[in-house]
Amino acid sequence: xxxxxxxxxxxxxxxxxxxxxxxxxxxxxxxxxxxxxxxxxxxxxxxxxxxxxxxxxxxxxxxxxxxxxxxxxxxxxxxxxxxxxxxxxxxxxxxxxxxxxxxxxxxxxxxxxxxxxxxxxxxxxxxxxxxx
Length: 132
What we know:
SH3 type barrels, single chain, alpha+beta, 3 helices
C-alpha cells in the first residue's frame, strides 16, 4: 500500500488518450460484495453537441479547474473500485489525483444518483447499504 488517503469528493484523472475526471463519492469502506476496502467513483464527461447526455447532473465550466466546458455525470459508468488497486494505479502513473470538488458540486453529483435512470441496481444498492 502506498499510503494515499482517499476522501469523498477527491478526483482522479484516468490517464490515457482522453483523460476524464472521476469523483470519489465516499470515504473508503469495507464492502463485502467486492471483499475489500472500496470507494464508489463516477465519471464526468464533456457535453457533445447533438449527442446524448444524462441531465441528472450537468456541471458548468469553472466548477472545478479541470472542467472548462459544460459536462455531465455518467451515472451508467459509476463503479466500485478496490482502494489497494487504485493506490497501485496511482503509484504506477495510470491514475492521477487532482483537486477535490467543492461540497456544492459533490452534493449536486450525489443528488443525481437519486434521479438518474442510468444508475445500475448494484450501484444503487452500494449507495443504500453504505449510507452514501
